[in-house]
Task: structure prediction
Amino acid sequence: MVGPGRPQFVLFGSSIVQLSYCNDGWGAILSDVYARKADIVLRGYYGWNSRRALQVLDQVFPKDAAVQPSLIIVYFGGNDSMGPHSSGLGPHVPLHEYVENMRTIGEHLKSLSDTTRIIFLSCPPVNEDKVRQSSSGFFSELVRTNELCQMYSEACLKLCKEIGVPAVDLFNAIQRRPDWLNTCFTDGVHLAAEGSKVVVEEILKVLKEAEWKPSLHWKSMPTEFAEDSPYDLVAADGKTTLNPSEWTFHRAIQWD
Result:
């Protein structure tokens, strides 16, 4: 570990998480927003469902770790929601089992420490036509529909209310974007830059509205080594320096 220690934000999930540093992804954006404030740690696993997440839960989040995360953002559901394959193989997990798996994940993460905060992301929609075009010839009996996505999204949101975990309704948030079918995905499933913007907006909204102490919203967190220095850039008056620690003008989007 390098020092000094910062709050740790862990992104835990399937390919929506693993690919979150690609294509101006939401993980990369959060790393920029929280630069010098928190370390964003990626634990994403392409193709995984909630069953596989349970298998490694104690390894990824051991209860006896010396330092526990300040925030864990969890996404599973897209692969679980795929239609079952006739062979019995594949990522499909029945809805009732998916809910119980996510409940177990949520309860485990809540037990890590009194100050570990959790956000669940619900299953986003898909572009069904694009899924069929991009997967034809590669996969057998690939069933991915918005009807199924909605069922798993709603079940996740309902569970979150039951166990007291904040949730982001990605299924509806993405569909509020103009021309979302064509702008929010790279292949009909995984997020393009526009889709990732939605994820960041919704996560920051939760963090801003949460009554957590300390607050984990980026504007409320201290910036590391932010004191003034004579080594900063010299101001126009030629006598003082300008501290750039809080500058954000480099961002194309000024996040709230």
About this structure: The mean pLDDT is 95. The longest strand covers residues 8-13. The beta strands are 8-13, 39-44, 71-75, 117-121, 167-168, 233-234, 241-242. Residues 130 and 187 are 6 Å apart (CA to CA).
